[in-house]
Amino acid sequence: MIIAETFKGQNIAVFGLGRTGVTAALSLQAGGAKVSAWDDRQAARDEAEAAGVNLVDLTAADWSGFDELVLSPGVPDKLPKPHWTAERAAAAGVSIICDIEIFAREVAARPEKMRPKIVAITGTNGKSTTTALAGHILKACGKDAQIGGNIGRGVLDLDRMHAGTYYVIELSSYQLERTQSLRANAAVFLNLSPDHLDRHGTLEAYGRIKQTIFSNQTNADAVIVGTDDDYGKLLCSQLKANNGRRIIPISAHRSLGHGVSVLDGQLYANLGKRSQKVCDLREAKTLEGLHNWQNAAAAFAAVESLGIPPKMIGDAILSFPGLAHRMETIGTAGKVRLVNDSKATNADASRQALASYDNIYWIAGGQAKAGGIDPLMDLMPNVTKAYLIGEAAPNFSKSLKKAKVDYKVSGHLEMAVLCAARDALQSRKPNPIILLSPACASFDQFKDFESRGQAFRESAQRLIRLFEEEVNRKKDNAA
Predict the structure, then answer these.
(1) How far apart are the C-alpha atoms of 102 and 24, rounded to whole Å?
(2) End-to-end CA distance of the chain
(3) How far apart are CA 250 and CA 344, in angstroms?
(4) What are the backbone dihedrals phi and psi of residue 96, each rounded to the nearest 5 degrees, phi first?
(5) What pLDDT does residue 197 have?
(6) Rounded distance, CA 25 to CA 44, Å?
(7) Which residue, 96, 260, 109, 97, is CA-closest to 183?
(8) What is the pLDDT of residue 386?
(9) Strand, helix or coil at 218?
């Protein structure tokens, strides 16, 4: 755990006792702060108290005595409606922060030579894969790399920092809007597409929050920007015009005069006097698709900016084991491959998977985002049939019917897997893919995208076992 010593003697309110909230409270308490923690859920309070968190009913507290409020990133303080804790904090003039800001202040409090290196990664899509890949590269190159933030462990739950530590942190817009002090040695902005607009209001506001990942950087730090979307292209041009930092554009679509790019699967770095081939990404089976090639370019640029040799980075990229729920191959049943892309919680994320395969038996649905699946209609030639689940099924069926795509309303995930398997196994087309890529949030039927992905994995594994048992039975009968 990273102990929040910079808050010693302060009176800190903490609301939201999930994974990051409990760790933040314990970190603050260990550092000498007086913590008053609370959650609207009794079960969360009970678990936090058992872990040693000091509980205080914030509904009855005197807010004028608090120095700051650590508010769970998932709890809104403005749109769509401020949570009651945010209203109390605003009335009392109490600033709102999150665990990332606590971490940032701890880093800034150390002498320059004693600070760890920080790689910070944001974007609408691809954050988790890029974060995990950058962390994997650093570990493979012998570095003490810690991975956390919006992925895996909360940032304050990471191992205590020292000068040789590398922290690779995934940052959501929810976290960035409550972080003011973070300085990243390498800051990655992958892409931007409409998402979380209920929280941020407009795409412009969403983008401004994402751009705060570059705040506090110096000329010694690296700025890595994806330029495969219009927003990224414009942002890169603006950054080049407005500051003198090391700006490294990345692309999986075209060659760059300066930057890191992927051409026909070959990763090239053009960061000095000549272009250098790093590796052949077609050999990286866990990084399929143009979007993953962009993620690889981003991870390479970030790690190379920290002084790691390109050859070592290329070798590490090819050994990346992949990430659960991101175009994760579960296995095969005969000729049918089952792919778990549960992390695709919006249409733009599903676009990546739909563009990477042919003959897709597509499982989609859940709680729809703005626009539904209409932006994906150009990829429907890749879809043989769709299987719809959750709240979005009625609206998605209208979109598919209009596009003349064969579909079935399955209702629940397990039924969708069974129906897709039946149809894919009977198909005469080569290499059918059963793809869970919902283009939706999961909260209508599952706790989160991980739970949805795990349910798909279990259904897929049952299907694979049954198929193998049937094949073996036929062999035994033939013998």
Answers:
(1) 8
(2) 60
(3) 22
(4) -110, 130
(5) 85
(6) 13
(7) 109
(8) 98
(9) coil
Beta pairing partners, 180: none
Q: What is the pLDDT of residue 190?
A: 98
- Predicted confidence at residue 244, as pLDDT, reads 64
Length of the chain (residues): 479
- Burial label for 391, CB within 10 Å (0-12, 13-18, 19+), is middle
The enclosing H or E element of 13 equals strand 11-15
Res 388: pLDDT: 98
CA atoms within 13 A of residue 42's CA, in its CB half-sphere: 0
Residues of the chain where predicted confidence (pLDDT) is lower than 50: none
**Token pair in block for residue 110:** 């150390």
Q: How far apart are CA 253 and CA 226, in angstroms?
A: 11
Give the tens place of pLDDT for each residue, 101-134. Answer: 999 999 999 999 999 999 999 999 899 999 999 9
Q: Report the alpha-carbon distance of residue 381 to residue 362 in Å, rounded.
A: 12
Asked if 390 and 444 touch (Cβ cutoff 8 Å), the reply is yes
Are residues 102 and 156 in contact, defined by beta-carbon separation less than 8 angstroms?
yes
Residue 332 Cα to chain centre, angstroms = 26
| Residues ≥6 apart with Cβ < 8 Å to 106 | 2, 3, 4, 5, 6, 161
Structural domains of the chain, ranges and CATH numbers in brackets: 5-97 (3.40.50.720), 100-318 (3.40.1190.10), 328-477 (3.90.190.20)
Instruction: Name the H helices within 95-218.
Output: 99-108, 127-140, 173-176, 197-200, 203-211
pLDDT at 474: 86
Residue 370's pLDDT is 86
**Residue 252 has which token pair?**
């999986």
Q: Phi and psi (nearest 5°) for 127?
A: -60, -50
> Taking the mean position of all CA atoms in its chain, how far away is CA 255?
26
How far is residue 250's CA from residue 130's CA, in Å, rounded to a whole number? 13
| Token digits of residue 380 | 């429907």
245 backbone φψ class: left, alpha, beta (φ>0; ψ -120 to 50)? beta
Q: What are phi and psi of 398, to 5 degrees?
A: -65, -45
List the alpha helices (DSSP H) in 141-202: 173-176, 197-200
pLDDT tens, residue by residue, 37-50? 999 999 999 999 99
The amino acid occupying position 248 is I
Predicted structure pTM score:
0.85
